[in-house]
Amino acid sequence: MISLAPVFSLEFPPLTHIVQWPAFLFEDTAFAINKVVMVYFFAIIMTVTLFVLGNKKQLVPTGAQNLAETSVSFIEDEIVMPTMGADGMKYAPFLASIFFFVLFTNIFEVVPVIQMPASARIALPMLLALTVWFVFIIVGIINQGPIGYFKNSLFPPGVPPTLYILVTPIEFVSTFLVRPFSLMVRLFANLLAGHILLVTFAVLSSGLVIGKWYAVFLPLPVFAVIFFTAFEVLVSFLQAYVFALLTGVYIGTSLHAEH
Which of 58, 193, 221, 231 has the fewest CB atoms within 10 Å, i.e. the most exposed one? Predict the structure, then answer.
């Protein structure tokens, strides 16, 4: 535990307390449910609800249907077309699901009372990264054949044969190990860092609500909390976008061997 007692009479919780929450259902079992698990449930429900409501047949689209249609257009225009082209349109539902699920799990960082991004726990980014890893390999095998896919991935055309002894191990590590690892770490590290910052300045703000002379510094951490809250909204969107965009890039390389 970090203590600032000699100066401000403040005690910061240990890092484990920032990301770990006690279970309130099925405690000490594999099915334990805590705040983080509830965020998973909420994110799934919100993602499904968005597209169920958006799929309603209405003569004049309104509300959720407009939002869903705009969101799908954004995924198609800003992710699918730049990374996969027209051939990748059939993967738009998968990319849209990835984008919104990650966005909703992230945005709970700034939701009052909950204030916990589920992506700040390594399990979710790891599961999503492994899912993407599995999908782009299967897409490659389906579109290029098992031999063709691994040959094109590990033995890039145009490389002198003598260099394959160096290039092939690099391609294997970068394609099949670094891709899922970077997806996982990027999402996890950014959300965890933002969560720690918000907790730090929130503790400072609450600790300075006192009647001593250093209460004059209260506006500084309060301003920081407001600023980082707005910043975390932006980060939540950007990390969801980057995750979906890289997923599109990886699937695109499996669709088109020349990439």
Answer: 58
3-class SS at 28?
Answer: coil
Q: Whole-angstrom distance between the N-terminal and C-terminal Cα of the chain?
A: 50
Q: 251 and 135 in contact (C-beta within 8 Å)? A: yes
Q: Tell me the two tokens of residue 252.
A: 């695109």
Dihedral sign of CA atoms 61, 95, 243, 78 in order: negative
Whether 171 contacts 156, CB under 8 Å: yes
DSSP secondary structure, 119-138, as one string: GGSTHHHHHHHHHHHHHHHH
Rounded distance between C-alpha atoms, residue 253 and residue 136, angstroms = 8
- Closest Cα partner for 135 from 187, 192, 84? 84
Decide if 45 contacts 60 (C-beta within 8 A): no
- CB-based contact 119:125 (threshold 8 Å): yes
If you count them, how many residues does the chain have? 259
Measure the CA–CA gap between 120 and 106, rounded to whole angstroms: 8
**What pTM does this model have?**
0.84
Q: Residue 24 carries which side chain, given as an amino acid letter?
A: F
